[in-house]
Amino acid sequence: MARKKQYNEEEVIKKAMGLFWRNGYEATSVRMLEKEMGINQFSIYSSFKNKQGVFLESIKFYKTEINTIKEKLKNSNNGITGIKQYFYDFLEFSKEGNLRKGCLVTNSVNEIKDEDEPEVMLELKKFANEIRDLFVSNLKQDDQLENTFIEKQADYLMNTLLGLSIASKVFNKTQLENIIEVTFTNM
Amino acid sequence: MARKKQYNEEEVIKKAMGLFWRNGYEATSVRMLEKEMGINQFSIYSSFKNKQGVFLESIKFYKTEINTIKEKLKNSNNGITGIKQYFYDFLEFSKEGNLRKGCLVTNSVNEIKDEDEPEVMLELKKFANEIRDLFVSNLKQDDQLENTFIEKQADYLMNTLLGLSIASKVFNKTQLENIIEVTFTNM
DNA sequence: AATTTATCTAAGCAATCGCTTAGTTTTGTG
DNA sequence: CACAAAACTAAGCGATTGCTTAGATAAATT
Fold first, then answer.
1. C1 C1' – A8 CA distance, angstroms?
2. pLDDT in tens, A10-52
3. Which end of chain B is more exposed for a tag (fewer CB within 10 A), N or C?
4. Is the CB of B119 under 7 A from strand C?
């Protein structure tokens, strides 16, 4: 009935996500997205409505990307040790060659203002809580722990993970390993 | 011989810092600075050279502002307990009414790219290391600790502090307290 | 083959970006 | 008071922002 799309939406979102991850939301212009995604602005707007739409889809794609290490944690079934491995996995996941990109969600939470983009912030907070809940269910594998204590531990671990996202941009590899080691020898 | 400045440079930088803290570097335009600082763009550029200059001076001012709780830590002389108090002090310091602003330095480290603003990044990293060193010298007050261990602990505590800056934007007060309590009951 | 319709390219929209320049006002000095 | 110099206001610079529109192109249906 009409012409076919010459691009695959998932493929171009993958590229957009990479750009947002490396550059941040504001610093990524639609012209940059155009080049990176390899399609015209018209196509971007017709497929994703606006810049925010491209970003929201990028976050969705990020979720599926990070799912590989999340699934690994889910299936590990060895409680706190699995979480420690998740931290190491995250450090690998968040680097691209020598570039430390941090966590896309953490970067965005830090940059985007609640009042400017409430829709985006809601999505980001949901994401953070999914990871936190994953920690909770993993901590429950190491029985004998009280439930209220587990909730506190999950908050604490989530904080360490948020910290690692930033620390990875400032500290060297040894220091990052120090952080993880101290975190888990203390527990 | 000539006309006098009608503004005090420190006063206007204080206002600029507040804007950068609330909005971030990129999202703060020179027009916004103009309004907040209460002076014309010409005056901004003649006093501080450019936008980056205003930002660098804002960071300097931030240092003197945070010095109040840094000095408290320096003089507390009760090692790890002093650091714990510093974390609580930071949470107070970084909020403005109901708004959680995080740490200006942490926000900026997360936003600014090393390659775009190397001069700024150098300053930010220096700042982070000053806090870390403060933790080191405080940990040394609790003797019996090995030096290499203290270095690792300082990295770890610094990570927790970086994390708190972001966590304060996502978590509620109880959760933030959980984080601090778990951190220090584990040590 | 003719028609329809979605997708493409490319030009252009008003608004804003960081920054500069031209020209007026205020001040201290000779 | 006349002059010089710094600080002021305000207009405007080219470049870029997110987004839209006009018109050419391609593919499926009749």
1. 32
2. 999 999 999 999 999 999 999 999 999 999 999 999 999 999 9
3. N
4. no
Give the global pTM.
0.94
Determine the Cα–Cα distance for residues A170 and A157; give it in Å rounded to an integer.
20
Best of A104, A159, A184 to disrupt the B interface (most B CBs within 10 Å) is: A159
Asked whether residue B2 carries a pLDDT value surpassing 80, the answer given is no
* Cα separation, A154 vs A91, whole angstroms: 19
Other Cβ atoms within 10 Å of B157 Cβ, number: 28
Q: Which of A27, A36, A141, A34 is nearest to A82 (CA)?
A: A141
- Domain range summary for chain A, segments of one domain joined by +: 56-185
Closest-approach residue (CA) in chain B for A166:
B110
Give the burial string for B13-43 (b: 16+ CB within 10 Å, else e): bbbbbbbbbbbbbebbeeeebeebbebeeeb
Question: Which amino acid would we find at residue B103?
Answer: C
Buried b (16+ CB within 10 A) or exposed e, A146-175: eeeebbbbbbbbbbbbbbbbbbbbbbeeeb
* Length of chain B (residues): 187
